[in-house]
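Students often ask why we bother encoding 3D structure as a string. The short answer is that it lets us treat folding as translation between two languages. Here is a chain of 262 residues written in the first language.
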Amino acid sequence: MVENKRVELLTSPCKGDVIPFHQFPNNWSSRTDSNRRPTDYKSVTLPTELLEHSFIYLLTIITVSIFFVNGCCTQLNTNMDVLSFSHGQTQSKLWLCDTIEQYLPENAVVVILGCWYNMLGFMLLTRNRDMYQHILGVDIALEAITGADILCQGFMLGNNAQIRNVCKDADTLNLQGHRVVINTSVEHMRDDWFDNVDPGALVCIQSSDVTDQKEPWLVTNPCPDSVSLQDRFPMSEILFAETKHFDYGSSSYNRYMFIGRK
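And here it is in the second language, the structure alphabet:
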């Protein structure tokens, strides 16, 4: 078992709401969130250091919003939940991007399970698209895939398209040939997907110590600590294991991540 390190992350809470994506206001604040859909009760602004790293991501989101307002794109028939761009969501994904890149094989073929709007796939390609041959985003919710296709459209068109999003059940999907498997939503699905991962594939998993089954967390398969998380998904080799602590004053949680080879 790799020693699990702990990193403290502090920020201040403020209020925010879920709104239709095409009505995204100028003075919005992100709610905290550890995983897809479930979120903290408090909200937080993006810290200065996060804004520096996230400029290109937020610029794309604003650009898409302007397109909708001016009718330059096909009208979106669903609302995008801006919680997917919250502090906890964004920090967790940046943490994953910063860490996994050193372990990726050349021309990586990646699948992201429970991708929501696949902001993670968008971030990975924005940071260094030359590292990836293809990224597949998978989510069981059609409205999530609709949003993912809009967010990732810049990497989906033309002869050099590198990303695709599909509405499928991650637990029953054939994962053969995907040498990198990422799942940051294991507390919201069964563990059957892991049986479908190729031996020797690089696997990255994130979860948290939140166990609340009620709104807004909706946890169905809790991971109360990092040890139990690693026990659930046995690897032949653990390459990285760390815990990041999110503290918002009246609420806090631990976010775990480990990377290994099945």
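Translate back mentally: The first helix runs from residue 48 to 69. Keep this in mind for the problem set.
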